[in-house]
Write a sequence for this structure.
C-alpha cells in the first residue's frame, strides 16, 4: 500500500512540475492575456519542401538552422501574476537539471535568459525567456536537433 | 442423469462445521456490539487527510494530462509558419544583442586593463 502511495506521490510531483517548453506552452496557452503560437513537427516538414528556404535575417542565413527544428512554442504574456508564475515555473524546470543556462542578461528591470538541453554536440531544446518590468514575459521554445556550431554561429552573427 | 451442479451428494461436510460457523458469526456480531464506532479526532483527521490527498492527486493527474496533450497547430500555411519562425529568430537575435554587446564591451575593458598591467610589469 505504501509503495502504491509512493508511486502516486512521485507521479503527482512530476505532474506538477513542467518538463519542457511544451508543458509550459500547454499550461499557459488559452489563458486571458496570453498570446500563443505553436508550430508542429508536421509543419516544419512542410516548410522543408518550400522552394525558397534560404531565409536571410540581415547577414545571417537562417535556412540551415531552421531545417533542424521540429517544433516551436511561443508565448507572450501581458499579465503580472501570470508572468511571475511562468518565470517561477521556468526556474523550477531549470533547477531540476535538464536545462542549462546558456546566457543571461539583466538591465533596468529587463531580464533575458537562454537555456538549452544538449545531447553531445546537438542542442535538442532551446528556450528563451525575456521579462520586461515584471509585467510581460515572452518565451520562445524550440525543439529539434540543432548542431551546437550552428547555434554558436547565430550567436556570433547576432553580436556582429 | 447427473449434472455438474449435483455435487452436494458427493461432498462430505465435516462434522460440526455448521456449528463452528454459527458460533463465529455470533462472536463477530457480539464484538461489533461491544466495540463503539471510532469517532476519535485522530480517526477523523486521518479520513480528511485521505480525502484531501485523493483530491490533490486527481487534480495533479489532470494537470499532467493537460500538460502532455499535443497543442493545435497555429498555422495551416507553411509559408506563414515560416514567416513566424523567421520573426521568432529575429526576436531571439534582438533580445540577445544587448547582452552580447555588454559582454563585448566588458571583454574590451578587461583587455585594456590587462594591457595596462602587462605594461606596468614590462616597465
Amino acid at each position: 500500500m505504501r509503495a502504491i502511495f509512493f508511486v502516486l506521490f512521485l507521479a503527482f510531483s512530476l505532474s506538477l512540475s513542467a518538463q519542457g517548453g511544451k508543458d509550459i506552452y500547454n499550461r499557459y496557452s488559452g489563458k486571458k492575456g496570453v498570446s500563443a503560437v505553436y508550430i508542429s513537427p508536421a509543419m516544419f516538414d512542410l516548410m522543408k519542401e518550400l522552394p525558397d528556404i534560404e531565409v536571410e535575417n540581415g547577414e545571417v542565413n537562417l535556412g540551415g538552422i531552421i531545417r533542424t527544428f521540429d517544433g516551436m512554442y511561443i508565448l507572450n504574456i501581458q499579465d503580472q501574476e501570470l508572468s511571475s508564475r511562468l518565470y517561477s515555473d521556468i526556474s523550477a524546470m531549470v533547477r531540476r537539471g535538464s536545462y542549462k543556462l546558456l546566457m543571461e542578461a539583466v538591465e533596468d528591470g529587463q531580464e533575458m535568459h537562454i537555456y538549452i538541453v544538449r545531447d553531445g554536440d546537438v542542442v535538442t531544446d532551446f528556450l528563451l525567456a525575456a521579462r520586461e518590468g515584471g509585467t510581460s514575459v515572452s518565451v520562445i521554445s524550440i525543439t529539434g536537433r540543432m548542431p551546437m556550431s550552428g547555434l554558436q554561429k547565430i550567436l556570433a552573427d547576432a553580436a556582429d | 442423469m447427473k449434472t455438474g451442479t449435483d455435487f452436494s451428494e458427493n461432498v462430505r461436510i465435516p462434522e460440526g462445521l455448521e456449528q463452528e460457523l454459527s458460533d463465529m458469526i455470533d462472536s463477530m456480531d457480539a464484538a461489533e456490539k461491544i466495540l463503539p464506532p471510532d469517532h476519535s479526532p485522530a480517526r477523523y483527521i486521518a479520513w480528511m487527510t485521505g480525502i484531501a490527498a485523493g483530491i490533490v492527486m486527481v487534480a495533479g493527474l489532470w494537470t499532467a494530462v493537460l500538460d502532455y496533450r499535443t497543442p493545435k497547430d497555429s498555422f495551416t500555411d507553411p509559408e506563414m509558419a515560416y514567416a513566424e519562425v523567421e520573426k521568432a529568430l529575429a526576436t531571439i537575435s534582438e533580445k540577445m544583442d544587448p547582452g552580447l554587446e555588454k559582454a563585448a564591451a566588458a571583454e574590451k575593458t578587461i583587455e585594456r586593463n590587462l594591457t595596462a598591467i602587462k605594461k606596468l610589469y614590462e616597465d
About this structure: The helical segments of chain B are 17-34, 41-68, 78-122. Chain B has three helices and no strands.
